[in-house]
Each structure stands twice: as structure tokens, then as C-alpha cells.
UniProtKB/TrEMBL annotation:
The lineage of its organism: Eukaryota, Sar, Alveolata, Ciliophora, Intramacronucleata. It comes from Tetrahymena thermophila (strain SB210). The keyword ATP-binding applies. It is found in: Cytoplasm, Cytoskeleton. Residues 726-748 are annotated as: Disordered. InterPro entries: Kinesin-like_fam, Kinesin_motor_CS, Kinesin_motor_dom, Kinesin_motor_dom_sf, P-loop_NTPase. It comes from the Eukaryota. One of its GO terms (biological process) is microtubule-based movement. This is Kinesin-like protein. GO terms for cellular component: microtubule.
């Protein structure tokens, strides 16, 4: 029984491993290749450059393993293709690349357009989606795309006009986690989609590290939503498939990348979010009661892809060189665990918020309105054209002109007749003629009016048609000619997917079997002689001893790796503490205590954003009421504005008109500008706060510092403290009050 069918629609995360070729630099540095790949068995063997004998071999098995020589097309077929096919049936799908920096995640996900063979999964996905749409005339499609990055735990819309704006994560009980205000574009063909990808890429954070020149310093997520509408059994059915294409920033060691400053901060954030991803994977695999999705924005964004309702493929990227052994093993262990995550994919059928339904309804409404406006004899074809109106115009013209012509002829006849008859009737005839001319002019006027009316109607009709056409063009439909080709391709893909799934299933079972075999000594086995039994059992014993050795070796390696990771985390911790200390120092020494308190009261921790936000007073009901208007002024006005008006200030803001975009009214400056020279005392305080631990700071106070600011005055004897003269910060102006400080300051 396949893994899929074990528990209704339960299926495991599919894990693929890709190893990049050894780089030129690695060849120059004479690096050894330590990775061996057997795609048929789905095996990756990594040799420990420091190990000996059988202990130096680490064997991993994955659903798909891709060697250094594989093409981008092969990678697409083996990893993304089945997921994209599922998305086009209405499933949610996620493809994400994970691995150490510089191992080829971006190459795998995006690749490059030149040469065309180098295109990665994302552009190939675009082509695949529109190829399927072209070959499916029985359905209507609406395709949308969004592109975001997650940089230093902040979400940015890479397709927005202002890509610097931070966006927030929200949760909807029906649709799950989503990014509020993320822009989404309706896309009609793969080229338009590629343009969006290129546009977003330009806005993405990329920086050089020692390990990779063009390293992605953020996680990126390209989202494609495919809405499909189909008439089945006389009823409309809508399905929506969502595809997440994720290129994660690379995991890395600060010591290797030699990151400093902003790069160092980025690296800390990247490592932290990846560590959370690891924790989520572990919690899911170990069936822990709580999964820490909320610990990072990355895991919240991927919540449905890990343990949710999505079909997921994880591509673990590794490098082949010996100096990356630790990271390679760590990536493979991470990936190996992810194989056991179970998802429950389901088709998104008839969702309430499908945009294609809204579009279709709007098109029908416009058509109905057009019909109403243009009269009952107007018929709208599938292409939205209206021939009848044009005919009416013609009829009107023809009828009126004919009438006029007949009239003129009649007049002419009468005129001739009259001219040839008695002269006394001439006057009468001329009068009649004048009347006829008047009638002709009247008719001409009527004709002109009618022409104008028809032109106006035609204009209005054109406007409606344009609107309908524009909306209809967003909904794309396939071509009958391509249908057979698509059917054949679909059959082929289905067979290929089935074959691959069977292979993967066999591999998983084989792996399980091998694990169990080594531990079970065949109690029921029959042996011909005692010697045969001894031989067989000795063999099995040796096998077990070998496995125990390997397990010990692995445990030692994991232990060492953990120690190193711990060291890195401690490093990160130290740097964050340092930064915090600096911020503390600034707050405590340079911001009045009452302002700090006010701010603290206004701060609120948002579970949704995982961040501190300033409370919106309006929502809390503490909003200060607006002062009432002063008689004679159009709006409430402050004292300084009133004074300014009094003294004839020409600034438009004081004209009491409602003018937008006014300059800010700046508060009175009560501080002095910094003149550039930091006093030795302040500099020493800052240096010590930045460099030393808290306790050391207090201890050193006795030795070096003339003035020391401490958080806990109880630590110093009161007597000692009181014997010392107090020093207070000077105010900028004599008229201003002295700044209050939350710290008690003692001098020694
Ligand atoms: N399979 C491959 N074949 C050829 N070149 C590759 C392959 N994989 C990666 N490379 C090359 O290696 C370099 C690093 O790759 P890439 O930028 O994709 O790594 P990355 O994992 O995305 O790194 P980071 O996490 O720092 O963004 C690039 O020059 C890329 O072209």
C-alpha cells in the first residue's frame, strides 16, 4: 500500500537532494570531493575527511537524489513537475530550497535565462502552467502572482511601488496565514510572469559574503494562485490551486563567512529563522504536542506546507568539498528528518473568495447593462460585438435621406408643373416651395440630432465593450488544437509520476527493512548445523556491532556539531546583549524617564506580528478629544498658530484654510547640539558598557571610573554612596527643567 493511501489523503513531504559541482575556487584550493551519489538507489554517501575505515561513511537516502551533472530540466521533472500538475488540479503546493550558503539554492529555484537551459524551477513553472492552460479549453483560468521577501524578520512586498514598506502577517480561520496588503497581479502569459520575477529580484536583498558573491540575504517567496472554472453537470465548479516557490537564505557560520556589521545581523536573523524551521520539523517528526510555528515569520508563512494541507517538496542543496563536511552533514540530517513530516493535501473546491467568480459575475452584469441601454434587439455575441446598433444607424440614415430625396423630387415635379401652368398661381407655389424648404431644413436638423444620438450611443457601447473585453481577457482559456497534445502529455506525466512514486515508496520500505533487519536475529530461522547457526549469528552480530560503531560515531559528530552550534549561538547572544546594553544606556542616560514610562505604557506585544507595537489610542478609547474651534476660525487652532496669525506670518498653514501637506510644526528645542567631542568620562562609560559584562562594569567602577551609572544602587553601601557628592546632568537651557533620569548616579 502506498504511503499516500495509508491514512486517507495523508502524504509525506518529498525530499530531494542536489549536490552542486565543485567550484573553480575549490579546485584551485585543492579541495577533496567527499560526496558520492547513487541516483538509482536514492543514496548519498558523505565521507568524513577526518574519519577512518567504515566509520567515515555517512549514508543518507532520499526520494530523489540529483548529482553534479544533472540538468536543470531533469531537476524540474524530478521535483517540481508533479507539484505543479497538482496545483493545476486545485491543490496547494510548496517547493523550497534549503542549504548552506553558496550551494545552489537560487541556481535551483531561479537559475539564469542565458543560456536558456539554465532556467531554474520558477521560470519553468511559469511555462508549464500556461502550457497546461493552453491545452485545456474546457476550463477558464485566472492566474495571479505575488512576490515577497523576509529580511531580518520583516516582510516586504517585492512587487509593490514602495518595496520598503513592511507588511504584517494575519490569520484567517478559513484560508490560514496570509500577508495583509500584499500586492497581487493578474498575469496572462509566462513572459509577463517572468517580468514580475525580474522586477521583484531587483528589489531583493543580495549581498556578497566570503562564501558566495551574490548571496541571498533574505528568504524569498513567489506565490502563484491559479483559479479554474468549469461547467460540470450544468453547474459551475471552481477550484483554486496555490503554489509557493521558496528560495531560503543560506545557513552559514559567521566564522566562515566573516560577516560583520549589517551582514552579521542579517546572518543572525537568517540562522535564527532556519533554527526555528528545524525546531518545527523536529516537533512534527517527534509528534510533539506543540509545534513552534509562531517562533518566526518564516515558519508561519510555511505553516501549511509543513504538517498542513499542502503537497511539499524540499530540495536540500549541498556542496561536494571536504571543508563543508559539517554543514553538508547538518543539511542532510535536517532533510532526512523532514522526510517523515506528514501533510494532508486537499483540493480547494468552490472557495467563497474566488476572484474568477467575481470577474464572471461582473462581466455578466456589464453585458446585461449594455443590453438594457442599447435596446432589446441588441444581441451580444461571445466576442462582445454588437452589429445591430450599426444597422439601426444605417436604417435611420437611409430612411431620412430617402424621404428627403423623394420630397425634393416631388417639389421639383410640382415646381415644373406649376411653372408651366397659370402664372397667378405662381405666388402660391413659391410659398409652398418655401414651406417645403423649411420642412427640408427641419428634417435635416432632425437627422443631425439622430446622428449625434447614435454616435453617443455607439461611444457608450464602445466603453462597455472595452470594459467587458478587458475583463474577459484576464480570464484565459485554452485552445482546441492543443487539447490532444496536452492529453497525451498528461498521460505521460501521470505514468512518470506513478513510476517515480513507486520507486520512492520502495526505497523508503527498503530503508526501513534494512534498519529492522540489522536488529532482528532470526529466531525462527532453521539451521542445518550448529556451525551454520554460529556463522549466521556471528555475521548478524558483526552487523549490529558495525551499526553500533556507526551510531556512536554519528552521536559523537552530532555532539561536536551541537557544541559548535552552541558556541555560535553564544556568540550571537553576546552580540545581541551588547547591542541591548547600548540601547539601554542610551535610553537611561539620554531619554527622560517620564518619556520612557509613557512609551512603555503605550507598547503592546502583538502575537500576530511577534513584535512590539505602539498602541493605537483611538482603538483603546483614550484618544484626546479635539479642541473645539475658536470663534472666527475654521478649525481648531493652537496658541502658536494664533500668535503667528496675529504677527502676520504668511505661511499658508496659518491661514485657517484646510490645506493638505503642511510643514510640521516643530517643538521648541530644549537640548544643545552635540559639538563633536565626547568627553572622556562619557566615552569611557560607553566603552565599558559595550565591552564588558554587567558585573565587571560594577567592579571596575571602583578602580577606574570617576563616575559610574549602575542599575542596582542597593549593591553599594548606602553610607559610601551618601558620602559622595552627587553629579547631575546639565540642562541645555537655564529656563528648561533638568532632565530626569531613571538611574541613580553615584560618584566614587
Ligand atoms: N548545479 C550547479 N551547476 C552549476 N553551477 C552551480 C550549481 N549550483 C550552484 N552553482 C553556482 O554556484 C554559485 C552559488 O550558487 P547560488 O547563488 O545559487 O547559491 P545559494 O545557495 O543560493 O547561496 P546563498 O544562500 O548565499 O544565496 C553560483 O555562481 C551558481 O551559479
Amino acid at each position: 500500500m502506498s504511503q499516500k493511501k495509508k491514512n486517507s489523503n495523508e502524504e509525506c513531504v518529498k525530499v530531494a537532494m542536489r549536490c552542486r559541482p565543485i567550484s573553480k575556487q575549490e579546485l584551485i584550493d585543492n579541495r577533496q570531493e567527499i560526496v558520492k551519489i547513487d541516483p538509482e538507489r536514492g543514496e548519498v554517501i558523505v565521507n568524513n575527511p577526518k574519519g577512518e575505515g567504515s566509520e567515515n561513511r555517512n549514508v543518507f537516502t532520499f526520494d530523489v537524489v540529483i548529482n553534479q551533472k544533472s540538468t536543470q530540466e531533469h531537476v524540474y521533472k524530478m521535483t517540481a513537475l508533479p507539484i505543479v500538475e497538482s496545483v493545476l488540479e486545485g491543490y496547494n503546493g510548496t517547493i523550497f530550497a534549503y542549504g548552506q550558503t553558496g550551494t545552489g539554492k537560487t541556481h535551483t529555484m531561479e537559475g539564469s535565462n542565458e543560456p536558456a537551459d539554465n532556467r531554474g524551477i520558477i521560470p519553468r513553472t511559469f511555462e508549464h502552467i500556461y502550457r497546461v492552460i493552453e491545452g485545456t479549453p474546457s476550463k477558464q483560468f485566472l492566474v495571479r502572482a505575488s512576490f515577497l521577501e523576509l529580511y531580518n524578520e520583516e516582510i516586504r512586498d517585492l512587487l509593490a511601488k514602495n518595496a520598503k514598506n513592511k507588511l504584517q502577517l494575519h490569520e484567517n480561520p478559513d484560508t490560514g496565514v496570509y500577508v495583509k496588503d500584499l500586492s497581487s497581479f493578474i498575469i496572462q502569459n509566462p513572459n509577463e510572469m517572468k517580468e514580475k520575477l525580474a522586477h521583484g529580484r531587483e528589489n531583493r536583498k543580495v549581498g556578497a559574503t566570503k562564501m558566495n558573491e551574490g548571496s541571498s540575504r533574505s528568504h524569498s517567496l513567489f506565490m502563484i494562485t491559479v483559479e479554474m472554472s468549469e461547467i460540470r453537470d450544468g453547474q459551475q465548479h471552481i477550484r483554486v490551486g496555490k503554489l509557493n516557490l521558496v528560495d531560503l537564505a543560506g545557513s552559514e557560520r559567521q566564522s566562515k563567512t566573516q560577516a560583520t556589521g549589517e551582514r552579521f545581523k542579517e546572518a543572525i536573523n537568517i540562522n535564527q529563522s532556519l533554527a526555528t524551521l528545524g525546531n518545527v520539523i523536529s516537533a512534527l517528526v517527534d509528534n510533539k504536542p506543540y509545534t513552534p510555528y509562531r517562533d518566526s515569520k518564516l515558519t508561519r508563512l510555511l505553516q501549511d506546507s509543513l504538517g498542513g494541507n499542502t503537497k511539499t517538496v524540499m530540495i536540500a542543496n549541498i556542496g561536494p568539498a571536504d571543508y563543508n563536511y559539517d554543514e553538508t552533514i547538518s543539511t542532510l540530517r535536517y532533510a532526512s528528518r523532514a522526510k517523515s513530516i506528514k501533510n494532508r493535501p486537499k483540493i480547494n473546491e468552490d472557495p467563497k473568495d474566488a476572484m474568477i467568480r467575481e470577474f464572471q459575475e461582473e462581466i455578466n452584469r456589464l453585458k446585461e447593462e449594455l443590453q438594457k441601454k442599447m435596446g432589446s434587439n441588441i444581441q451580444i455575441g461571445p466576442d462582445g460585438k454588437i452589429a445591430k446598433v450599426v444597422e439601426v444607424q444605417k436604417v435611420v440614415v437611409v430612411t431620412d435621406e430617402q424621404k428627403l430625396k423623394e420630397l425634393e423630387e416631388q417639389i421639383e415635379r410640382e415646381k415644373n408643373l406649376l411653372e408651366s401652368t397659370v402664372g397667378k398661381k405662381r405666388e402660391q407655389i413659391e410659398r409652398d416651395l418655401a414651406d417645403s424648404r423649411e420642412q427640408k431644413e427641419k428634417l435635416e436638423r432632425q437627422l443631425k440630432e439622430k446622428e449625434e444620438q447614435v454616435a453617443k450611443q455607439a461611444q457608450e457601447q464602445e466603453k462597455y465593450l472595452q470594459q467587458i473585453k478587458e475583463m474577459e481577457s484576464k480570464i484565459i482559456q485554452g485552445n482546441k488544437l492543443k487539447e490532444t497534445q496536452r492529453e497525451k502529455e498528461k498521460q505521460l506525466i501521470k505514468l512518470q509520476i506513478e513510476l517515480e512514486e513507486r520507486k520512492q515508496e520502495e526505497r523508503r520500505k527498503q530503508e526501513e527493512l534494512e534498519k529492522n533487519n540489522a536488529l532482528v536475529i532470526g529466531a525462527q530461522e532453521q539451521y542445518k548445523s550448529l556451525q551454520e547457526e554460529i556463522d549466521a549469528k556471528t555475521k548478524k552480530l558483526n552487523n549490529i556491532v558495525e551499526r553500533i560503531k556507526q551510531a556512536r560515531q554519528q552521536t559523537n559528530e552530532i555532539h561536536e556539531y551541537r557544541l559548535r552550534e552552541k558556541e555560535i549561538l553564544l556568540d550571537e547572544n553576546r552580540s545581541i546583549t551588547k547591542e541591548l546594553k547600548l540601547i539601554d544606556l542610551i535610553i537611561e542616560h539620554f531619554i527622560p524617564q517620564n518619556e520612557v514610562k509613557k512609551l512603555e505604557q503605550k507598547l503592546i506585544f502583538s502575537d500576530e506580528d511577534g513584535d512590539w507595537n505602539i498602541k493605537d489610542d483611538a482603538n483603546e478609547g483614550h484618544k484626546i478629544s479635539r479642541p473645539a474651534s475658536v470663534f472666527g476660525f475654521k478649525r481648531p487652532i493652537c496658541e502658536s498658530a494664533r500668535m503667528a496669525i496675529k504677527f502676520g506670518d504668511s505661511n499658508p498653514r496659518f491661514r485657517t484654510d484646510n490645506i493638505l501637506q503642511l510643514d510640521l510644526e516643530l517643538p521648541e528645542i530644549i537640548t544643545e547640539d552635540f559639538d563633536g567631542n565626547v568627553s572622556q568620562k562619557v566615552q569611557e562609560t560607553i566603552n565599558i558598557a559595550l565591552n564588558e559584562d554587567e558585573e565587571e562594569l560594577q567592579m571596575m567602577a571602583n578602580e577606574k571610573m570617576p563616575i559610574v551609572y549602575i542599575k542596582n544602587p542597593e549593591l553599594i553601601s548606602k553610607e559610601n554612596a551618601l558620602n559622595q557628592p552627587r553629579v547631575r546632568l546639565k540642562s541645555a537651557k537655564k529656563t528648561s527643567r533638568r532632565p530626569q533620569s531613571g538611574l541613580k548616579k553615584y560618584q566614587y
